[in-house]
TrEMBL record:
Keywords, in A-Z order: Amino-acid biosynthesis, ATP-binding, Kinase, Nucleotide-binding, Threonine biosynthesis, Transferase
CDD domains the UniProt entry points to: HomoserineK_II (cd05153)
Reaction it catalyzes: L-homoserine + ATP = O-phospho-L-homoserine + ADP + H(+)
EC number: 2.7.1.39
InterPro entries registered for this protein in UniProt: Aminoglycoside_PTrfase, Homoserine_kinase_II, Kinase-like_dom_sf, Pseudomonas-type_ThrB
Keyword Oxidoreductase: no
Protein's name according to its UniProt entry: Homoserine kinase
Similarity field: Belongs to the pseudomonas-type ThrB family.
Domain Aminoglycoside phosphotransferase: 27-255
Single GO biological process annotation from the record: threonine biosynthetic process
Pathway membership: Amino-acid biosynthesis; L-threonine biosynthesis; L-threonine from L-aspartate: step 4/5
Cross-referenced SUPFAM superfamilies: Protein kinase-like (PK-like)
Length: 315
Protein backbone atom coordinates (compact mmCIF):
# COMPACT_ATOMS: atom_id res chain seq x y z
CA UNK A 1 0.00 0.00 0.00
CA UNK A 2 1.40 3.37 -1.02
CA UNK A 3 -0.60 5.59 1.35
CA UNK A 4 2.18 6.40 3.76
CA UNK A 5 0.41 9.42 5.31
CA UNK A 6 -3.24 8.66 6.14
CA UNK A 7 -5.72 11.49 5.60
CA UNK A 8 -9.38 11.69 6.56
CA UNK A 9 -12.26 13.34 4.73
CA UNK A 10 -12.28 16.37 7.02
CA UNK A 11 -8.61 17.15 6.35
CA UNK A 12 -9.02 16.94 2.59
CA UNK A 13 -12.32 18.85 2.59
CA UNK A 14 -10.60 21.68 4.45
CA UNK A 15 -7.61 21.52 2.08
CA UNK A 16 -9.92 21.88 -0.93
CA UNK A 17 -11.27 25.20 0.36
CA UNK A 18 -7.95 26.75 -0.68
CA UNK A 19 -8.85 26.09 -4.34
CA UNK A 20 -11.66 26.63 -6.80
CA UNK A 21 -12.09 22.88 -7.05
CA UNK A 22 -15.51 22.10 -5.61
CA UNK A 23 -16.53 20.25 -2.45
CA UNK A 24 -15.30 16.79 -1.46
CA UNK A 25 -17.49 13.86 -2.42
CA UNK A 26 -15.09 10.90 -2.20
CA UNK A 27 -11.51 10.23 -1.07
CA UNK A 28 -9.68 7.07 -2.14
CA UNK A 29 -6.08 6.04 -1.43
CA UNK A 30 -4.02 4.82 -4.39
CA UNK A 31 -1.99 1.66 -3.81
CA UNK A 32 0.23 1.78 -6.90
CA UNK A 33 2.75 4.45 -5.88
CA UNK A 34 6.25 3.65 -4.65
CA UNK A 35 7.59 6.84 -3.06
CA UNK A 36 4.79 9.31 -2.35
CA UNK A 37 1.30 9.23 -0.89
CA UNK A 38 -1.42 9.55 -3.53
CA UNK A 39 -5.19 9.93 -3.24
CA UNK A 40 -7.92 10.14 -5.85
CA UNK A 41 -10.19 13.03 -4.89
CA UNK A 42 -13.71 13.38 -6.29
CA UNK A 43 -15.47 16.71 -5.81
CA UNK A 44 -18.88 17.87 -6.97
CA UNK A 45 -17.22 19.40 -10.04
CA UNK A 46 -14.17 17.33 -11.07
CA UNK A 47 -11.77 14.41 -10.58
CA UNK A 48 -8.41 15.22 -8.95
CA UNK A 49 -5.20 13.60 -7.71
CA UNK A 50 -3.66 14.67 -4.41
CA UNK A 51 0.04 13.88 -3.87
CA UNK A 52 1.98 14.22 -0.62
CA UNK A 53 5.76 14.06 -1.01
CA UNK A 54 7.30 11.63 1.44
CA UNK A 55 10.96 11.71 0.44
CA UNK A 56 13.38 13.30 -1.98
CA UNK A 57 14.71 16.82 -2.23
CA UNK A 58 11.73 19.00 -1.38
CA UNK A 59 13.56 22.16 -2.39
CA UNK A 60 13.44 20.85 -5.98
CA UNK A 61 9.63 20.73 -6.07
CA UNK A 62 9.28 24.28 -7.47
CA UNK A 63 11.21 23.11 -10.56
CA UNK A 64 8.63 20.38 -11.19
CA UNK A 65 5.75 22.80 -10.66
CA UNK A 66 7.25 25.31 -13.10
CA UNK A 67 7.93 22.60 -15.68
CA UNK A 68 4.40 21.19 -15.50
CA UNK A 69 2.93 24.70 -15.68
CA UNK A 70 5.09 25.43 -18.74
CA UNK A 71 4.18 22.22 -20.57
CA UNK A 72 0.50 22.62 -19.70
CA UNK A 73 0.55 26.15 -21.12
CA UNK A 74 1.93 24.67 -24.35
CA UNK A 75 -0.97 22.22 -24.55
CA UNK A 76 0.98 19.07 -23.71
CA UNK A 77 -1.10 16.30 -22.06
CA UNK A 78 0.42 16.72 -18.60
CA UNK A 79 -1.31 17.30 -15.24
CA UNK A 80 -0.72 20.99 -14.74
CA UNK A 81 -1.03 21.50 -10.95
CA UNK A 82 -3.94 23.43 -9.52
CA UNK A 83 -3.09 26.81 -8.02
CA UNK A 84 -4.90 28.10 -4.95
CA UNK A 85 -6.91 31.32 -4.75
CA UNK A 86 -3.65 33.25 -4.30
CA UNK A 87 -1.99 31.61 -7.32
CA UNK A 88 0.20 29.20 -5.33
CA UNK A 89 0.45 25.53 -6.38
CA UNK A 90 2.84 24.03 -3.82
CA UNK A 91 1.02 23.53 -0.52
CA UNK A 92 1.49 21.82 2.85
CA UNK A 93 -0.84 19.14 4.21
CA UNK A 94 -0.29 16.90 7.26
CA UNK A 95 3.20 18.34 7.54
CA UNK A 96 4.17 17.23 4.01
CA UNK A 97 4.57 19.19 0.75
CA UNK A 98 1.43 18.64 -1.32
CA UNK A 99 0.22 19.22 -4.86
CA UNK A 100 -3.26 18.87 -6.34
CA UNK A 101 -3.58 17.79 -9.97
CA UNK A 102 -6.38 17.12 -12.45
CA UNK A 103 -6.92 13.40 -12.92
CA UNK A 104 -5.86 12.45 -16.43
CA UNK A 105 -7.97 9.98 -18.46
CA UNK A 106 -6.94 6.45 -19.31
CA UNK A 107 -4.82 3.60 -17.97
CA UNK A 108 -1.23 2.36 -18.28
CA UNK A 109 -0.52 0.34 -21.46
CA UNK A 110 1.06 -3.03 -20.69
CA UNK A 111 1.53 -4.07 -24.32
CA UNK A 112 1.47 -0.82 -26.32
CA UNK A 113 0.02 -0.94 -29.80
CA UNK A 114 1.68 0.62 -32.83
CA UNK A 115 -0.86 3.45 -32.69
CA UNK A 116 -0.05 4.08 -29.00
CA UNK A 117 3.68 4.08 -29.78
CA UNK A 118 3.12 6.59 -32.56
CA UNK A 119 1.05 8.81 -30.26
CA UNK A 120 3.76 8.69 -27.60
CA UNK A 121 6.50 9.50 -30.13
CA UNK A 122 4.56 12.45 -31.50
CA UNK A 123 3.90 13.87 -28.05
CA UNK A 124 7.47 13.37 -26.87
CA UNK A 125 8.79 15.11 -29.99
CA UNK A 126 6.40 17.98 -29.35
CA UNK A 127 7.45 18.14 -25.70
CA UNK A 128 11.14 18.22 -26.57
CA UNK A 129 10.63 20.93 -29.17
CA UNK A 130 8.87 23.07 -26.60
CA UNK A 131 11.08 22.17 -23.63
CA UNK A 132 14.25 23.43 -25.30
CA UNK A 133 13.01 26.93 -24.42
CA UNK A 134 12.11 26.19 -20.79
CA UNK A 135 14.21 28.46 -18.58
CA UNK A 136 14.31 26.31 -15.43
CA UNK A 137 17.42 24.30 -14.65
CA UNK A 138 17.92 21.04 -12.78
CA UNK A 139 20.96 18.91 -13.70
CA UNK A 140 20.22 15.34 -14.74
CA UNK A 141 20.69 13.35 -11.49
CA UNK A 142 21.25 10.03 -13.32
CA UNK A 143 23.59 10.93 -16.16
CA UNK A 144 27.19 9.85 -16.71
CA UNK A 145 28.39 12.04 -13.83
CA UNK A 146 26.27 9.81 -11.54
CA UNK A 147 27.05 6.48 -13.19
CA UNK A 148 30.81 6.77 -12.87
CA UNK A 149 31.06 7.05 -9.06
CA UNK A 150 27.92 5.07 -8.15
CA UNK A 151 28.74 1.88 -10.02
CA UNK A 152 31.55 1.13 -7.54
CA UNK A 153 28.92 0.60 -4.84
CA UNK A 154 27.43 -2.47 -6.51
CA UNK A 155 30.50 -4.21 -7.97
CA UNK A 156 30.94 -6.47 -4.95
CA UNK A 157 27.47 -7.95 -5.59
CA UNK A 158 28.16 -8.82 -9.24
CA UNK A 159 29.86 -11.76 -10.92
CA UNK A 160 33.39 -11.10 -12.21
CA UNK A 161 31.96 -11.02 -15.74
CA UNK A 162 29.37 -8.38 -14.86
CA UNK A 163 31.88 -6.36 -12.86
CA UNK A 164 34.09 -6.13 -15.93
CA UNK A 165 31.13 -5.37 -18.19
CA UNK A 166 29.88 -2.50 -16.05
CA UNK A 167 33.30 -0.94 -15.54
CA UNK A 168 34.25 -1.29 -19.20
CA UNK A 169 30.95 0.20 -20.34
CA UNK A 170 31.37 3.28 -18.17
CA UNK A 171 34.91 3.77 -19.45
CA UNK A 172 33.53 3.54 -22.99
CA UNK A 173 30.80 6.12 -22.28
CA UNK A 174 33.29 8.53 -20.75
CA UNK A 175 35.56 8.27 -23.78
CA UNK A 176 32.68 8.62 -26.25
CA UNK A 177 30.61 11.37 -24.67
CA UNK A 178 33.70 13.28 -23.61
CA UNK A 179 34.62 13.69 -27.28
CA UNK A 180 31.14 13.76 -28.82
CA UNK A 181 29.60 16.92 -30.21
CA UNK A 182 27.29 18.74 -27.85
CA UNK A 183 23.85 17.15 -27.97
CA UNK A 184 20.64 19.24 -28.00
CA UNK A 185 19.52 20.11 -24.48
CA UNK A 186 16.18 20.81 -22.86
CA UNK A 187 13.83 19.79 -20.09
CA UNK A 188 13.17 16.02 -20.07
CA UNK A 189 10.85 13.65 -18.25
CA UNK A 190 13.72 11.37 -17.21
CA UNK A 191 11.64 8.24 -16.50
CA UNK A 192 9.10 7.87 -19.29
CA UNK A 193 8.19 4.23 -18.88
CA UNK A 194 4.81 2.84 -19.92
CA UNK A 195 3.48 3.15 -16.36
CA UNK A 196 4.07 6.90 -16.48
CA UNK A 197 1.56 7.31 -19.29
CA UNK A 198 -2.20 6.96 -19.49
CA UNK A 199 -4.06 5.92 -22.64
CA UNK A 200 -7.77 6.06 -23.40
CA UNK A 201 -7.85 3.49 -26.18
CA UNK A 202 -5.30 4.65 -28.75
CA UNK A 203 -5.35 8.24 -27.50
CA UNK A 204 -2.66 9.45 -25.11
CA UNK A 205 -4.54 10.82 -22.12
CA UNK A 206 -1.57 11.99 -20.10
CA UNK A 207 2.11 11.82 -19.22
CA UNK A 208 2.49 11.73 -15.44
CA UNK A 209 5.08 11.53 -12.62
CA UNK A 210 7.64 14.14 -13.64
CA UNK A 211 9.65 13.74 -10.42
CA UNK A 212 12.74 12.60 -12.33
CA UNK A 213 12.34 15.62 -14.59
CA UNK A 214 15.49 17.62 -15.22
CA UNK A 215 17.41 19.43 -17.93
CA UNK A 216 19.87 17.54 -20.07
CA UNK A 217 20.31 15.62 -23.31
CA UNK A 218 16.99 15.21 -25.12
CA UNK A 219 18.42 12.00 -26.58
CA UNK A 220 18.72 10.56 -23.05
CA UNK A 221 14.92 10.83 -22.67
CA UNK A 222 14.27 9.27 -26.07
CA UNK A 223 16.60 6.34 -25.38
CA UNK A 224 14.81 5.58 -22.10
CA UNK A 225 11.53 5.44 -24.02
CA UNK A 226 12.84 3.10 -26.72
CA UNK A 227 14.45 0.76 -24.16
CA UNK A 228 11.08 0.33 -22.45
CA UNK A 229 8.40 0.83 -25.10
CA UNK A 230 10.10 -0.90 -28.03
CA UNK A 231 11.80 -3.81 -26.25
CA UNK A 232 10.52 -7.39 -26.26
CA UNK A 233 10.80 -9.74 -23.29
CA UNK A 234 14.13 -11.11 -24.53
CA UNK A 235 15.63 -7.60 -24.56
CA UNK A 236 15.62 -7.26 -28.33
CA UNK A 237 14.23 -4.19 -30.04
CA UNK A 238 10.84 -4.55 -31.72
CA UNK A 239 11.24 -2.89 -35.13
CA UNK A 240 7.58 -1.94 -35.59
CA UNK A 241 7.28 -0.18 -32.23
CA UNK A 242 10.79 1.31 -32.54
CA UNK A 243 10.05 2.81 -35.96
CA UNK A 244 6.57 4.01 -34.95
CA UNK A 245 7.96 5.99 -32.02
CA UNK A 246 10.95 7.43 -33.83
CA UNK A 247 9.12 8.29 -37.06
CA UNK A 248 6.40 10.15 -35.16
CA UNK A 249 8.99 11.83 -32.93
CA UNK A 250 10.89 13.18 -35.91
CA UNK A 251 7.80 14.78 -37.42
CA UNK A 252 8.05 17.13 -34.43
CA UNK A 253 11.83 17.30 -33.91
CA UNK A 254 14.35 15.88 -36.34
CA UNK A 255 17.40 14.28 -34.78
CA UNK A 256 20.70 16.03 -35.46
CA UNK A 257 23.74 14.35 -36.99
CA UNK A 258 25.45 14.28 -33.60
CA UNK A 259 22.41 12.62 -32.03
CA UNK A 260 22.32 9.98 -34.75
CA UNK A 261 26.00 9.25 -34.17
CA UNK A 262 25.44 9.00 -30.40
CA UNK A 263 22.24 6.94 -30.58
CA UNK A 264 23.62 3.38 -30.16
CA UNK A 265 25.81 4.49 -27.26
CA UNK A 266 22.94 6.36 -25.59
CA UNK A 267 20.77 3.23 -25.75
CA UNK A 268 23.55 1.34 -23.98
CA UNK A 269 24.11 4.02 -21.37
CA UNK A 270 20.43 4.36 -20.43
CA UNK A 271 20.12 0.57 -20.18
CA UNK A 272 23.04 0.53 -17.77
CA UNK A 273 21.53 3.49 -15.88
CA UNK A 274 18.50 1.35 -14.92
CA UNK A 275 20.52 -1.80 -14.33
CA UNK A 276 22.64 0.17 -11.86
CA UNK A 277 19.79 2.05 -10.17
CA UNK A 278 17.87 -1.18 -9.61
CA UNK A 279 20.96 -2.91 -8.23
CA UNK A 280 21.42 -0.02 -5.80
CA UNK A 281 17.86 -0.42 -4.55
CA UNK A 282 18.27 -4.19 -4.08
CA UNK A 283 21.72 -4.24 -2.44
CA UNK A 284 22.71 -0.80 -1.18
CA UNK A 285 19.81 1.58 -0.58
CA UNK A 286 16.51 -0.26 -0.15
CA UNK A 287 13.29 1.77 -0.25
CA UNK A 288 12.13 3.42 2.95
CA UNK A 289 8.84 1.53 2.71
CA UNK A 290 8.03 -2.16 2.38
CA UNK A 291 7.94 -2.32 -1.41
CA UNK A 292 9.18 -4.91 -3.89
CA UNK A 293 12.11 -3.55 -5.96
CA UNK A 294 12.20 -3.89 -9.73
CA UNK A 295 14.33 -6.73 -11.08
CA UNK A 296 17.77 -5.46 -12.18
CA UNK A 297 18.21 -8.42 -14.54
CA UNK A 298 15.70 -6.91 -16.96
CA UNK A 299 18.10 -4.13 -17.87
CA UNK A 300 21.16 -6.36 -17.75
CA UNK A 301 19.45 -8.35 -20.50
CA UNK A 302 18.61 -5.19 -22.45
CA UNK A 303 22.19 -3.97 -22.19
CA UNK A 304 23.44 -7.29 -23.52
CA UNK A 305 21.21 -6.91 -26.57
CA UNK A 306 22.20 -3.27 -27.15
CA UNK A 307 25.85 -4.33 -27.21
CA UNK A 308 24.98 -6.32 -30.33
CA UNK A 309 23.90 -3.12 -32.07
CA UNK A 310 20.92 -0.82 -32.63
CA UNK A 311 18.27 -0.85 -35.31
CA UNK A 312 18.68 1.72 -38.09
CA UNK A 313 17.07 5.04 -37.28
CA UNK A 314 14.14 5.99 -39.53
CA UNK A 315 15.04 8.75 -41.96
Amino acid sequence: MAVFTPLDDAQVADFLTRFEAGSLKELKGVASGTENTTYFVTTDSRELVLTLFEQGEHEELPFFVDLLDYLDEHRLPVPGPLHDRDGVALQSLAGKPALLFPRMPGKHPTAPSIAQCSALGDTLGHMHSVSRHFEGQRPNPRDLHWLAPMHHRVLAYLSPEDQALMSDEIDTYQAFFGDASDLPQGAIHGDLFRDNTLFDGEQLGGIIDFYNGCTGDLLFDLAIVINDWATDDDGRLNKERHDAILTAYQTRRELTCSERDAWPMMLRMTALRYWLSRLLVVYVDPPAHDLTPHDPQRFRTILGQRLKGALPLPA
